[in-house]
Design a protein that fits this description.
Layout lengths: L13 E6 L10 H18 L2 E7 L3 E7 L6 H20 L12 E4 L2 H13 L1 H4 L14 H6 L17 H4 L5 H11 L6 H12 L7 H11 L12 H11 L12
Antiparallel strand pairs: 1-3, 1-4, 2-3
Length: 256
């Protein structure tokens, strides 16, 4: 079955994830994270992409960025960054071969509906993974920039990594009030339905937004693109399983 073409639209935010090959590690020490962020800053400068949020996990990376009018800037950024980083890792650890999965996943994001939720989803990755109990304790994400006004963890960057999105800037009239409002967003857990929608759209490389946003995508690319759960409808599966388990001392399996 042919792969769906990615949707990269001018000035429409894009959630990107790239994983290590076979989900193996791609960062091994602090110097590796610093090297990646250094070349990411170079790539943002050279391509004109704006980065709104990021997290570098042990075996994968999340980026939330907005491409310029030249949407080919996104694959150019990731190819350039990937090549430089793989060369560095192979030399540093005397290894050969690939480091990343061959195809990154991406999802166009409707800003007003999902951008801040997506930003929280990205920055909460280390908490969900049990690495820290507070996103402020993880240095390799954009949370401390948004919530605390802390600068980039790498001192000598060609430019600041984060370009705040207008929705973030709208949280307050000045930096202090924006940071306080942003921290307040993290006092409650991210809605489970929002997490499910973000993951489904990302895993299928489909856009994330309401019907109007999907209509806009359809008009621009000529094909309806929408994330849909695979397989039979969930209610039907649950009903059939319930019927087959009458008398059994067991609950229904969770699908998805």
């Amino acid at each position: 079955m042919p792969r769906r073409p990615r949707i990269h639209l001018p000035e429409v935010p894009l959630h990107i994830v790239q994983r290590g090959h076979n989900r193996d590690s791609c960062f091994f020490c602090d110097e590796d994270y610093s090297a990646y962020l250094t070349w990411l800053a170079d790539g943002l400068r050279d391509t004109g992409c704006q980065l709104h949020a990021h997290v570098l996990m042990t075996n994968h990376v999340h980026l939330l960025l907005t491409p310029p009018a030249q949407v080919e800037s996104v694959p150019r950024l990731l190819i350039m960054l990937g090549r430089r980083y793989v060369q560095y890792i192979n030399k540093a650890y005397r290894r050969t071969g690939t480091l990343w999965d061959s195809r990154y996943k991406s999802s166009s994001i409707q800003s007003e509906a999902y951008l801040l939720s997506c930003q929280r989803y990205i920055e909460l990755n280390p908490v969900r993974a049990g690495m820290v109990d507070d996103p402020a304790h993880y240095p390799w994400s954009s949370y401390r920039s948004h919530a605390l006004g802390v600068g980039d963890p790498v001192a000598a960057l060609s430019q600041p990594l984060i370009t705040p999105h207008p929705l973030y800037l709208g949280l307050g009239a000045d930096a202090g009030s924006r940071q306080a409002a942003y921290r307040a967003l993290f006092r409650c857990e991210l809605d489970r339905e929002a997490i499910s929608h973000i993951r489904l759209a990302l895993n299928q490389s489909q856009p994330l937004g309401d019907a109007r946003f999907l209509d806009r995508i359809e008009q621009m690319v000529g094909v309806r693109r929408e994330a849909r759960p695979r397989g039979r409808p969930r209610k039907l599966v649950a009903a059939e399983d319930a019927g087959s388990m009458v008398g059994a001392h067991s609950g229904l399996l969770e699908f998805g």
